[in-house]
Amino acid sequence: MASLVGAFAASHGPLIVREWDNVPPAQKKRMAEGFRELGRRVAATEPDVLIAVSPDHWSNFFLDNVPSICVGVGEVNEGPPEPWMKAFPHREIPGHAGLGMHLVKTALAQGFEPSYSHRLKLDHGICIPLWRMEMEKLPRIVPILLNSIEEPMPSLARCAEWGRLLRRAIESYPEPLRVAILGTGGLSHSIGEKTMGAIYEDFDQETIRRFGGAEQELIRYLDEKLPTHGNGSEEVRNWLVAHAAAGSRGFELVDYVPVPKVIVGCAFAAWRV
Amino acid sequence: MRDYWLSKLFFDLQSPALAAQFRADPQAVLKNYPLEERVKRAVLEHDAPFLAQRTNAYLLRYYFFTIGMKDAEFVQRLNG
């Protein structure tokens, strides 16, 4: 049987690439080290497959079809389509069709109705963390694109249910795969809104603190605060998936560093599974 | 609300080839999208608050990035 060997989360954001050279040295060092440390920890779990949970930033989907959740079941994923991600070293990233389809079938059997795709583009949401984590060898990637950029979005409670579902699905997959989960995005940031550039440190710190408490209280807090703390903060959904998959027992904060130059409250987290 | 064709324009402008064409001759690109005149005008005049009511915030940001507007001016316009 497969097993869940780790759950992690990291921020992403286009300016982490586009403004990288202009970030003040002290913040850049902490951000770089946060990503690298997370990369070391992911690598230490020796994953065969990494399930990467992230929004689609209008790279695969448009208003014609906005899936709440789409599971990548392809043998191959495409690299990032954004022109400014050209230097990312992988144009194709192997997937794991067997595990991907098992996730979909398990979901359908248990009252969840995901969309699925045999070929997804992995945009900066997934590829910036993979890049900055500087892992020598990438595991196979099963992407799960969770809508957190266009209303209406999946409820926070449902995202937590998805985390638990993923764990059940992983643990019922017949091959002895080592599987890790990486949630990406958040914490606070604001994109294309009047508040663009704002980082809400108090919200970020309180969110981090509440991940260590009862899941219901965390969700209640986020439900109340997300609408007024930047649309990018909605990506904390992906953290909730990783959190619930790991048993909702809180994470070890690798680092939190608000970086105005990249307009993101950057955080890096590792759960014990 | 979502203006489908306005959003489609911004979505399509993620393509570097179309973005280059748009920067060179926006009218030539706009004629392929059935936009209301007032929406077309808002695109050409960079009327961020008007456009913000009609599309996704990420797509809006992509558009202003594509035409080369600095974030600071974009935010200033949004709040104008």
Summarize the structure.
The complex is a heterodimer of chains A (273) and B (80). Chain A is an alpha/beta fold.
Folded structure, characterized:
The complex is a heterodimer of chains A (273) and B (80). With 273 residues, chain A is an alpha/beta fold. Chain A is built from 8 helices and 10 strands. Chain A has an 8-stranded mixed sheet, with helices on both faces. A two-stranded antiparallel sheet of chain A has the order 4-5. In chain A, a hairpin with a 4-residue loop joins strand 9 (251-259) and strand 10. The model of chain A has no long low-confidence stretch (mean pLDDT 98). By secondary structure, chain B is an all-alpha fold. Chain B has a single domain (4-78), classed as Dioxygenase LigAB, LigA subunit (Protocatechuate 4,5-dioxygenase, Chain A). Chain B has 7 helices and no strands. Chain B is globular, with a radius of gyration of 11 Å. The two termini of chain B are 20 Å apart. The A-B interface holds A 57-59, 62-63, 81-83, 149-150, 191-194, 196-197, 231 and B 2, 4, 7-8, 11, 14, 16, 52, 56-62, 71, 74-75, 78-79.
Please outline the helices and strands.
The complex is a heterodimer of chains A (273) and B (80).
Chain A: E1 3-10, H1 15-18, H2 25-44, E2 49-54, E3 69-72, E4 76-78, E5 92-94, H3 97-109, E6 115-117, H4 124-132, E7 140-146, H5 156-171, E8 178-184, H6 201-210, H7 215-225, H8 236-245, E9 251-259, E10 264-271
Parallel strand pairs in A: 1-8, 2-7, 2-8, 3-6
Antiparallel strand pairs in A: 1-10, 3-7, 4-5, 9-10
Chain B: H1 4-12, H2 16-24, H3 26-30, H4 37-44, H5 48-52, H6 57-66, H7 71-78
